[in-house]
Amino acid sequence: MSGSFGIGLVGLGRHGSRYVRHLLEGIPGCRLAAVSRRDVGAGRAFAERHGLLFVPEWRELVTCKEVEAVVVVTPPALNREICLAAVRAGKPLLIEKPLALTVADAQEMVRAAREAGIMLMTAQTLRFTPVLARLRDRLADVGPLEYLVLTMRTERPPHRWLGDPGQAGGGVLLEIGIHLLDLIRFLTGAEAVEAVADLARRHTDRVEDLALARFRLSTGVSCFVEVSRVSGGRVCRVEAIGRAGQLIADVDRSLLTRIEGRAVTATEAVPDRPTVVTVLEAFAKSLSTGAPVPVSGEDGLRAVAMAEACYRAAREGRSVPVAISSEPA
Ligand SMILES: NC(=O)c1ccc[n+]([C@@H]2O[C@H](COP(=O)([O-])OP(=O)(O)OC[C@H]3O[C@@H](n4cnc5c(N)ncnc54)[C@H](OP(=O)(O)O)[C@@H]3O)[C@@H](O)[C@H]2O)c1
Fold first, then answer.
1. CA distance readout (Å), 263 to 24, 147, 248, 260, 319
2. Mutate to test the pocket of ligand 1, among 12, 38, 79, 83 (most ligand atoms within 8 A of CB)
3. Domain range 5-125+275-294, CATH architecture
4. What is the pTM of this model?
5. Domain boundaries, the chain
6. What is the pLDDT of residues 25-73, one digit of tens each?
7. CA proximity to 279, closest of 119, 99, 123
8. Fewer beta carbons within 10 angstroms: which end of the chain, N or C?
9. 126-273+307-321: CATH number
């Protein structure tokens, strides 16, 4: 392989365009080599403008010799098939969240990559948000953790496919709530063992656009998750409630606040940075050094398992275990 890894990018939509922009601006250790999307005219024109290879069919893109690693930013229903094909072609992968629509699919992907010795990273991008990394570093300041409250509220869905369970797998919980589920593991270092959830369809027909969930962790700590796409404003907030005080990360404003008693004892404006840049840098570093990726396929699988437990809990109206089948993933 060359010193600079040729990236094949599948998906040039809303989020794929961010990957394009950052790759074209330059990520050390990798370069955009080939792209794939369904719209052949737009894809070809884009590729010509930037001197890239355009491969309309992703099955061909993953086997191209110019492509040394694959980045997947498509509707997640495609993730499993693209992953398995890339693994067969011996190409490392970075796949946008959610890793898969179901635990079974995610397990198959993780297993295939592991057996073939192929690197698989899940783009759980919120982990790379500077203010959340700072919250994690400062958690001990508020004493033993009592519980976490994680909130994400944003506008109505930007795509029709997000309302189609066949394309999206679920609603707002699997689409954006998955960030918060992954954060629970990232911030606490503990696994969720039990989930209870209440899901609502306020402006949608087939998938939830409002989700409330509670997880019990292996440590006994509880985590409360609220996620919705019903309101005009944007809020993404993580609150860590410790015995000695509270830390509140306001993600959209990149502010970390510490509260003790009635007082705000510290407010820190944390310099923000686009998470896709950090994700790509981490992926490129692992490609060139062989070091483990910071967010593995297994991490992506565990977040999907937490979401799947919520769907089952809501259907059955009771708390359920967060389970990954006993077969090794
Ligand atoms: N981490 C984050 O913060 C974040 C934020 C947003 C989205 N995402 C994730 O990114 C993914 C894409 O979301 P998006 O908002 O970018 O969706 P989008 O705007 O609908 O873009 C999807 C892209 O996939 C392409 N595509 C669809 N089917 C294809 C196929 N069979 N072969 C090749 N390309 C195909 C589409 O091509 P055409 O345009 O030509 O039809 C389009 O370029 C989702 O998994 C989403 O969850 C993550």
1. 46, 20, 13, 5, 37
2. 38
3. 3-Layer(aba) Sandwich (3.40)
4. 0.97
5. 5-125+275-294, 126-273+307-321
6. 999 999 999 999 999 999 999 999 999 999 999 999 999 999 999 999 9
7. 123
8. N
9. 3.30.360.10
